[in-house]
Amino acid sequence: MNNSYNSNIEKLNKIYKEYPEKTEKELNKLVLKLKTYEDFINYQKTTNYKYNKILIIIFIVIAILGMINLNINILFTYYFGLIFFITGYCSSLLGKGIPLIFLFSHGMTGLMIMLVPIVGKVINNPLLSDNPTNIYIYLGIVILLIIIATTLAIIYNLADYFKTKEFSKLIPAILYLLAIIMVTILPHIYTIIYNI
Length: 196
Prior knowledge:
mainly alpha, 7 helices
């Protein structure tokens, strides 16, 4: 690397002696280009740090949501699944291609472990044995949010262009958060939804 750098400096000095104005002009362009690149890298570092903090806040909110349903069995499975979900989702943000396996093997599995017991408790309620259409529509919205979030997480993993878009890292997490909120509050509002 040093030999190459020194060799280029020598060539540059020779060219400068012959064409000083042209050399200086091109050097100014190069310095400006490198400065712009440096600014971009610094911006990316700052942005990633900011979005990672927001991502941590989202995970903390999801953890707190588990306390809404104080059934000890549901609580245990919720936090057990949460560990899997966070591991799977964060893995999908790293690398490309292969980490998507963890999004499904850990992330989606963890999400199901978290949410299915809560939904099951509501669905098995005798009150809902007669025409629970509104509840099914509500759960349909939850499933749609999860599908959209997962699709965006896959796109984020595979498409470098999408990574450059603001909030691209956070949008799937926010949609997962909305789906989780809808499920965790369901045991407390299902009678209202049923009677709409």
